[in-house]
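Customer escalation, tier 2.

The customer says the design service returned an amino acid string that "doesn't look like it belongs to this structure." They asked us to rerun it and document both sides in this ticket. The original structure tokens are below, unchanged.
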């Protein structure tokens, strides 16, 4: 590998690390009042399930930061060892994520007044499905780092919507769900664009992986409004 290629690779790895930092800050800021700093804001007490969900997701973002930093530092040996923990943690994320979505339906919770809890369940449900699919393929290609790291990045970016929706910004509240979707997909588009410019080509993993994340949003919105989804969600949450 030439010196130029090595330098470009290290620069991209650092970009992944800082993307992980920014993603984590979005989650922290969004959930600061209701989770991380709730003692300062006097927000309602959380159920045990929501506390567990918060801790599980916090660990994932902390692990992702650590993993991207290890790669940037050239410590791929430690990265692989921690990857075993990450793979097992994904199973926990899927279980707790689905349980939380079901709990929200049972409580009648919906952050978007114009949709019912059963309709809104399509969003967290597909969040978990998209995340699990991307991580699953990334783990399958764990020995092909170029594919693996791009899909892991997309998987993490795909679950930013809950944090984005809770950012204390008036234009997000005024824009509603369309604004949340745009801001959730923006990091995906930026990362794909930056990676493409730096490598002078669109990497296939970013091509189909990014398209998968983007297309999943109009798909889940269309599905949420169908009678079939309402029946499935009611059965799933029963």
């Amino acid at each position: 590998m030439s010196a130029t290629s090595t330098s470009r690779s290290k620069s991209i790895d650092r970009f992944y690390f800082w993307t992980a930092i920014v993603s984590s800050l979005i989650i922290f800021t969004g959930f600061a009042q209701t989770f991380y700093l709730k003692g300062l804001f006097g927000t309602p007490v959380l159920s045990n399930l929501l506390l567990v969900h918060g801790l599980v997701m916090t660990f994932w973002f902390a692990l992702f930061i650590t993993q991207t930093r290890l790669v940037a530092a050239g410590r791929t040996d430690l990265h692989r060892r921690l990857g075993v923990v990450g793979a097992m943690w994904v199973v926990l994320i899927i279980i707790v994520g689905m349980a939380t979505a079901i709990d929200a339906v049972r409580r009648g919770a919906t952050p978007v007044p114009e949709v019912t809890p059963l309709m809104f369940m399509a969003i967290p449900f597909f969040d978990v499905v998209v995340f699990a699919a991307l991580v699953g393929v990334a783990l399958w290609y764990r020995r092909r780092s170029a594919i693996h790291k791009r899909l892991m990045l997309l998987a993490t970016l795909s679950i930013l919507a809950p944090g984005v929706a809770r950012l204390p910004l008036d234009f997000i509240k005024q824009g509603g769900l369309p604004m949340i979707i745009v801001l959730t997909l923006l990091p995906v588009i930026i990362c794909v664009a930056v990676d493409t410019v730096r490598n002078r080509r669109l990497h296939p993993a970013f091509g189909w992986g990014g398209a998968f994340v983007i297309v999943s949003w109009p798909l889940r919105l269309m599905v949420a409004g169908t009678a079939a989804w309402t029946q499935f969600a009611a059965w799933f949450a029963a």
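Tier 2 assessment: The sequence is consistent with the input. The radius of gyration is 18 Å. The mean pLDDT is 91. Sent an explanation to the customer and offered a walkthrough call.
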